[in-house]
Amino acid sequence: MRTLTSLFVAALAAALAACNDGTGGSTVTPDPSTARGTLIWNPPLRIATLTAADFTAELNAQGPTGQQLLALVTGGTGILPCGVDFHYIQYATVDGGNPQQATTASGALMVPTGGAGCSGARPIVLYAHGTDVDKTINMADVTNPNNTEGVLVAATFAAFGYIVVAPNYAGYDSSPLPYHPFLNGDQNSKEMIDALTAARKALGNIPAAGTTDSGKLFVAGYSEGGYVAMAAQKAMQAFSLANPGNTSLQVTAAGASSGPYALSSFGDAVFFGNVNLGATAFSPMIATSYQHAFGNIYAAPTDIAEAPYAANVGVLPSATPINTLFAQGVLPQLFFFNHNPPTAADIPAGTPAPIVSALTSLFPTITPPSAQFAFGFNPSPNFPNETNLVKNTFRAAYLADALLNPDGVVPTPTTGLPPAATGATLGGTLRGAFKANDMRSWVPTSPVLLCGGHQDPTVFYQVNTQTMQAFWTPQLLSPALLTVVDVDPAPATTAPAGTPQAVFLAAQTAVFTGAGGGAAGTQAVLQAYHGTLVPPPCTVTVRGFFNTF
Fold it and tell me: How far apart (Å, rounded) are the C-alpha atoms in residues 524 and 530?
């Protein structure tokens, strides 16, 4: 996810580096324990420190981009109330295997500094970042111009008095794990808890020793992080219910934005032809993650992927830039499915005759289902050397299971529930993994805000946010437990000043006009929608929600 211009963040990073006091150094012996939640270095490295005045001045100094960010996060006052110390934590957690094994991961501990409202007992925001294909990303390193999400989170939460704990996730940065347990709700929730446990051990043992945990715990995240935040809230709720005398994981409120919560529905939507932007990067990460977790997604990668790409299914996340991987032909940039639909020969043997008949009637209508999703299907004169990623045989197997065990949302809304069962085909095992990680498996008892934009081409709003809303609403103890915010006011072209919708529209207009308008502007907005336009207003909306508790 990219949320700020690289030019601005690079300039801010230089300023932060200049403010680094050089106190990295923990002089203690590292803790060798592999127990979950162990803080390996205590005190942890302090990467940078910035006073409130310095932070405000640096944002102002970056011109319109920095000033717009400052205006957004401060509600127009232009003044950040707190300074921020940025610490790098390393902790013990578990991998995504079965059985799970010990591993380590790293993350950020952002501690507010200053006077009233910035020190003393402060609430904690446990923040989960969005999908990143860059293996080297480190939320703590705000001197890195690529760490745009870390800067946004620091300015939105830490500079307003929230202690922020933001894991990088296993498989990133210094973690030795050779893959990332992508959308593995069990591992993701455990890692969030482990990062929180480790970070709490640092409080009181860092330069800002007077900043302590108030006991209020908020959970937030965007995109993949929205899913991770929800998985963490689910696990914390289960722990709190099972341990009524232990309030350490009692969630005060949560804010999840643009996440793939209803995984069964989302996966079905994609395989029925609604290819999401970024599918050729996300899907290899999903296949690798679930192969480690379940062991049955494929016998060999060639079961899923076409020959040019099968050997590269596990390549992401990578230290090699994604555009380089595309240019090298390691993965296709766009083409997820073949433009020629599956045929009867692609349907798994043993599929019931009525399903075979339904599939052969369905195939011509789904490749692609509309011009909106044509980018996900080869061939294209713009990419003459690319073939598609997913084999027709695997797609047919997946769809056979989808018709045998319908999800309840896609292709025809019925129950809105995950499939009751999954078949034994390869496609069915992937749907089984989606079902096991689908968030339609619990109902929150603490307040939740869901935020997003309804035209999101990457994580479909209707299939995820609205499906969760429809699933939860009749089961909630109180309607007040759920708040849903759509920051995209379309088809309206105006919104009241100061609202998230007004912020979104202003950014959308800037992207459209900056690309020259017309078709180029529309394409630029599509590309920027999920990673640039929605995150800032949703992140600030989540903070406003947390401020009410």
Answer: 11
What gap in Å lies between CA 288 and CA 168, rounded to an integer? 18
State pLDDT tens for residues 463-477: 999 999 999 999 999
User: What domain count does the chain have?
Assistant: 2
Q: pLDDT tens across 422-448, in order?
A: 766 666 899 999 999 999 999 999 999
Residue 230 and residue 293 in one domain: no
d(CA 115, CA 138): 28
Domain residues for the domain of 118 are 6-261+440-487+534-546
Indicate the pTM of the whole model: 0.95
Q: Residue type at 390?
A: V
178 and 283 share one domain: no
164 touches 211 (CB < 8 A): no
Q: Which helix (H) or strand (E) holds 86?
A: strand 83-94
Let me know: does 179 contact 292? Beta carbons within 8 Å.
yes
What strand order describes the sheet that includes 211-222? 45-50, 83-94, 102-113, 163-167, 120-128, 211-222, 253-257, 448-452, 482-486
| Distance (Å, whole) CA 95 – CA 293 | 9
Q: Tokens 């044509």 identify what position?
A: 374
CB atoms within 10 A of CB 420: 11
Domain end point (choices 419, 437, 455): 437
What is the spatial distance between Cα 394 and Cα 267, in angstroms, rounded to a whole number?
13
The CATH number of residue 37's host domain is: 3.40.50.1820
3-state DSSP percent of the chain in helix, strand and coil, to 5 = 40, 15, 45
- In 263-408, where do the E strands start and end? 337-338, 377-378
Judgement on whether residues 98 and 178 belong to the same structural domain of the protein: yes
Give the E-state strand segments of 181-303 in sequence order.
Answer: 211-222, 253-257
State how far the alpha carbon of 348 is from the alpha carbons of 60, 291, 358, in Å: 61, 20, 14
User: Of the candidates 221, 261, 257, which has an alpha carbon nearest to the alpha carbon of residue 486?
Assistant: 257
Q: What ranges make up the beta strands (E) of 197-245?
A: 211-222
Angle, alpha carbons 501-224-289 (nearest 5°)? 165
Q: What is the largest CA-CA distance in the chain?
A: 72
pLDDT of residue 146: 83
Spatial separation of the C-alpha atoms in residues 305 and 390, rounded to whole Å = 5
Cα gap 77→79, rounded to integer Å:
6
Query: For tokens 């999908």, what's the residue?
Result: 131
Structure tokens of 460?
Answer: 């479909």
What residues pair up with 318 in beta bridges, in sequence order? 134
Residue 134 lies in a domain: yes
Q: What is the pLDDT of residues 111-129, one digit of tens each?
A: 999 999 999 999 999 999 9
